[in-house]
Amino acid sequence: MLAVQEVTKNVVLAQTAVGVKENASSAAPRLIGQVDVEGKVVSGDAMQTQRALSAQIVEDGGASRWIVQEPQPTLRADIATLCMSPGMPGHLTDCRTAQTLDQGHGRLEQRRLTASSALHDSLDWPCVGQVVNIERETSHCRQQHTRSEIVYGMTSWPAAKADAARLMALVRNHWSIENGWHDRRDVTFQEDACRMQSRMAAQVLAVLNHLAIGVIRHLGWNNAAEARRFFAARIGEALSPILCCPS
Description:
By secondary structure, the protein is an alpha+beta fold. Helices cover 38% and strands 26% of the residues.
């Protein structure tokens, strides 16, 4: 299953089954076509970084924000070389930065995002407003070791509509999907342990889990596991938001 999520409300807007002879990349344009993207930013991981999808979103009045990694090696190399290497076009030109520092769960994580519009006309890609370079350094206090990585990306938004701080917020919202959605479905709702054989039944189960997570969030719960334990003995309270929902 491939789904599109509204991250601020943690609600799935649409989903589609990925066919036996296709993958998430080929199913993405069909999925995005089911939702209204006008005035919205569509964010995806490296697998969704596609030319046709980028153009489709912009044509429909939205904006795209993609991670550029292994599935697009040439594009990634172009961003890394042209924008970030000394002596190359775009190096330290028209650059804007934003930084964040977070501490929790025994980790100290620093992030620095650099955005540039210098490659607007240089990249062989449709609808590029800015490219970004994200440096992350995570220090594990107990193990006393540090891990660093650099992630590249791009957006169709020009600098006038999205400064570095806004782009950093978009990146962090996308990363939050892992904890706020994937982990809840895979672990809390035990989808990874499910042995269901029917594809249709699996699609129905995904819809029900999407609905349950949305209801939990609507009722103000941040801990899905705790909410499930609470409502297990209070079925009426769990169903009341659905039963009272206006048509």
